[in-house]
Design goal:
alpha/beta, 15 helices, globular
C-alpha cells in the first residue's frame, strides 16, 4: 500500500498559521513523490519539480509574510488533471497529439485556486481526452489495480499524499468512481457550477469540473473558491437531518453483489443513527438513459475532434477512435434528443424526490472495488445517470471490500443545491 495522509483542511491551516514551514512541507512531499511515484505514475513527469516548487514557494512567502493576511490555500499543493491549461505546463490531454494544439489561457478553476494560494505540484495523468483509454497510473492501495478514470492521476495523487487537493472532470463517472476506488472524497458539483473555460473538452454538454480530497472538510473548504455564487447562508439554515432516498430498479441492479451487500450495511447504519431511508423505484427506462448519454458523449467528441482527428487520426488510441467514429454517425435529430434528455431526467428524478420527501439520493459509488487490472478504468454506470441529469454528487469512503480495496457511497443532491449536499455529507460522513 502506497497511500499517505494529506488532509486538506488541517494542512491548509498549518501552512497558513506557520505551524508547518512551507519549504519543509514541499521538501517532504517531493521526497514522497521521488520515493513512490515510480510505482504509482500519478504525475506527468517534470525535470525539476522540487526546484520549481521551492522557487514558487519562496515568492509566495515574500508576498504573504503576515500569517493573518495569507489566503485560505496558502502553499497547499494542487494536482491539475492534464486536460486543464495551466501556466508553465504543457497540456497533452493524455494523448500523443502535439501539445500546441491545446495551448491557451490558464483554466479558470486553476487560476482561482492559485489566487487562493495553492501551488501546482504538477499535471496529473488523464485517460486520453478524458474518455476511456487509460494512462499508466496505478491505484496506491494496490498497484495491480486501476485507480479509475479518466481523472486517474488526480485521484491517485491525492490518495498517495502527493497533494491534498486535485482537480478532475466528470463526463460519465470520472470523479466519483476514482474517488471510490482510491478511498478518498470526490465532489462533482452541479453541471455548470464551476466554469469549464480552459479545459480540453470531452463532451461539453456533460463535462463537469470536480475535485478530490482526503477529507470532507477539505471538500467544504474548496467549494466556495470554485463554485459560482456559493451561498453559506444555505448551509446555516440547515437544521434537520436529510431524508435519504434509495433509487430502486434497473439502475441500482447494475451494482455488483459485494457493492450491494456493503450498501445494505451502510443503509442499516444510517437508519440506526436516526436517518429516514425511503426506497423509491425510479429510472425504469435506464437502458434509454444510458443509450442517450453515451450517444451524446460520442456525438460531441466527434464534433470537438473533427479538425484534429482529420489530421492526426493515426495518433489516437483505439477506444477513442471507436467513440469518435460512433459519434460521426449520430444525426442532428438524435443529438438534439440526447441533449433534451438531460433536463427531462433531472425533472423526473427531482419530482420523485419532492413526491417522496427525499433530500438526497444514496447509492453505491461504483459497481464494486477497483478491477484487478490497469487496462481499463472500470465501469462508470453507477455515476452516469446523475451526470446526465447534471445533479451534484459526492463520494464518501465507507470501508473496504473483501480484497482490501476501498468502497464508496455516492450521495446526490438536487441541481444547484450543492451547498446543502456538502453540508449534509459532512454529517453523514461522521458515521463511516
Amino acid at each position: 500500500m502506497l497511500t499517505a495522509p494529506a488532509l486538506l483542511a488541517s494542512t491548509a491551516t498549518a501552512l497558513k498559521n506557520g505551524t508547518v514551514d512551507l519549504l519543509d512541507y514541499i521538501d517532504e512531499v517531493c521526497q514522497k513523490i521521488e520515493t513512490v511515484e515510480a510505482e504509482v505514475y500519478a504525475l506527468v513527469p517534470e525535470a525539476d519539480r522540487r526546484g520549481r516548487l521551492f522557487s514558487e514557494a519562496t515568492e509566495l512567502q515574500a508576498r504573504f509574510p503576515d500569517p493573518d493576511a495569507r489566503p485560505p490555500l496558502y502553499g497547499v499543493l494542487l494536482g491539475v488533471k492534464d486536460i486543464f491549461s495551466s501556466e508553465g505546463f504543457a497540456t497533452r490531454a493524455g494523448s500523443l497529439l502535439p501539445a500546441e494544439l491545446f495551448a491557451g489561457p490558464e483554466a479558470a478553476c486553476v487560476t482561482s485556486l492559485r489566487e487562493a494560494g495553492a501551488l501546482v505540484v504538477g499535471k496529473t495523468i488523464s485517460a486520453e481526452f478524458a474518455y476511456a483509454e487509460p494512462g499508466p497510473t496505478r491505484n496506491p492501495h494496490n498497484v495491480r489495480h486501476t485507480p479509475g478514470g479518466s481523472s486517474s492521476g488526480s485521484a491517485a495523487a491525492v490518495a498517495a499524499g502527493f497533494c491534498p487537493v486535485a482537480l478532475g472532470t466528470q463526463t460519465s463517472g470520472s470523479v466519483i468512481r476514482p474517488a471510490a476506488f482510491c478511498g478518498i472524497f470526490g465532489f462533482k458539483p452541479s453541471y455548470g457550477r464551476i466554469p469549464t473555460a480552459g479545459l480540453v473538452p470531452c463532451a461539453p454538454s456533460l463535462d463537469t469540473v470536480g475535485y478530490f480530497t482526503q477529507d470532507i472538510a477539505g471538500i467544504a473548504l474548496v467549494a466556495p473558491l470554485l463554485c459560482g455564487e456559493w451561498q453559506n447562508s444555505e448551509i446555516s439554515e440547515i437544521s434537520e437531518a436529510p431524508v435519504l432516498g434509495v433509487p430502486d430498479g434497473p439502475y441500482l441492479a447494475k451494482a455488483g453483489p459485494e457493492a450491494l451487500q456493503a450498501f445494505d450495511t451502510q443503509l442499516a447504519r444510517l437508519e440506526e443513527a436516526g436517518y429516514t431511508v425511503r426506497h423509491v423505484p425510479v429510472m425504469h427506462n435506464f437502458g434509454t438513459i444510458y443509450h442517450q448519454h453515451m450517444r451524446l458523449v460520442f456525438a460531441e467528441m466527434a464534433l470537438q475532434h473533427r479538425t484534429w482527428f482529420a489530421e492526426f487520426e493515426n495518433l489516437y488510441r483505439p477506444d477513442t477512435v471507436s467513440a469518435i467514429r460512433a459519434g460521426q454517425l449520430v444525426s442532428a435529430e438524435e443529438l438534439a434528443a440526447a441533449r433534451a434528455g438531460r433536463n427531462k431526467l433531472r425533472r423526473t428524478l427531482e419530482a420523485a424526490m419532492a413526491q417522496n420527501g427525499i433530500d438526497l439520493w444514496v447509492c453505491p459509488a461504483a459497481t464494486g472495488p477497483a478491477p484487478d487490472e490497469i487496462s481499463t478504468t472500470g465501469d462508470p454506470i453507477m455515476n452516469l445517470p446523475w451526470t446526465y441529469a447534471g445533479m451534484p454528487a459526492i463520494t464518501i469512503p465507507v470501508g473496504f471490500a473483501s480484497n482490501g480495496l476501498p468502497l464508496g457511497l455516492q450521495v446526490i443532491g438536487t441541481f444547484m443545491a450543492d451547498e446543502k449536499l456538502v453540508a449534509w455529507t459532512q454529517s453523514l460522513n461522521q458515521l463511516f
